[in-house]
Sequence to fold (416 residues):
Amino acid sequence: MTDIQYTDWDSAVSKAEGPIVVEFWHQSCPTCKKIELSVRELPGKLEGRVKLVRLNVMENRETRRLAIEKGVIGTPTFKVYCKGSEIGEVVGLETLTDLAGTIENILKGCV
Amino acid sequence: MYDVIVLGAGPAGLTAALYTARAKLRTLVVTGPMVGGLIAFTYQVDNYPGFPEGITGLELSDKFKAHAERFGAEFLDGDATRVDFSTTPYKVSVGENVLETSSVIIAMGMTHKRLGVPGEDRLMGRGVFVCATCDAVLYEDRKAIVVGGGDSAIQEAIDLARFASEVTIVHRRGETRACRCLMDKVENDPKIKIFYNTEVTEILGDKRVKQVKLKDLKTGASRLVDTDGVLLAIGWDPNTAIFRGQLDMDGDGNLKAEGVKTSKSRIYVAGDLMDKRYRQVVTSCGNGCAAALEVIHQIEGQRGE
Fold:
């Protein structure tokens, strides 16, 4: 899981060749903390098929603006991108049940 | 078989567990949805003694848990789904897992009340939210509605207005119950307005909240208002549904208790479920401790017989 901020968006997400999962989170978000373990397991479960990055919406104003621009309205939000376009998201309490399975399902839309 | 099962892992439950574990009672905490309980949703706790610089709610939660663990309290992540208090040992089910215990401390706290209107559940996390602290920053230049009229609703509106372009408080009554100190701030903040005698009857939007339907309770007229978010601050419901038929409670689900003692022996209540008047971290820790001491005295008395 790589940490990115607004300056990395183009290279890490928009121009990425394979599918990318972005977690929008911040350190005072209780649900983000609760799902920490399942987030740490994600790379293992989705190994090779997808790259995971995360973006702290509290990092700085520009990063927060970027999240808002991407339509993020609550934390945690996971957005799945395929060839630079968003193909699905998992939001808030939805992340508490079978996060990996839900993301895998969304990834089926990336061929 | 446990000596005590603590239901809930907020300040009351974690303090109770620290005391019973330190007294060498076999203690299990069934955490419920979040370790820390409601304080996990509080960005900064500035009134807990011993932390003059303040501490974040999540950090304080971790410290409480670590303290109980240090003395041997066990933790089970999950919700109690069923209890059987008809015979001893008492039984607490967490899913398929049925646990036995000689005593119980109930510290499951309260949950934000929901409006019960169409769109609310579907758009939860997609613009409908209950925690300004968690997501206020994402409302920069966005519009938000705050539903409620108490101190917490008004405080949340003020917090949101630091970022949002426009905050509208929607309140069913003709006046608020909030303190003058907060209302002065609201009245001086050009970004905040209040609709009195108004209720939200529907939340609309496909993948995100787009509009709310508001009803003027005086005229009966309805209208649609554009918004990006709906923050619910209409009060609290006690988390006591699983005790219905097992413990005495009133029509609103509040457990009947004398201090920390419920209607059944060796079943105690602590935290917000026991004290609706003060509801501070430090008072919850206090009555969690009181419940634990009752358990300890009771069990030690029994062993001495």
Notes: Chain A has a mean pLDDT of 91. Chain A has one domain: 2-107. The CA atoms of residues 20 and 53 of chain A lie 7 Å apart.
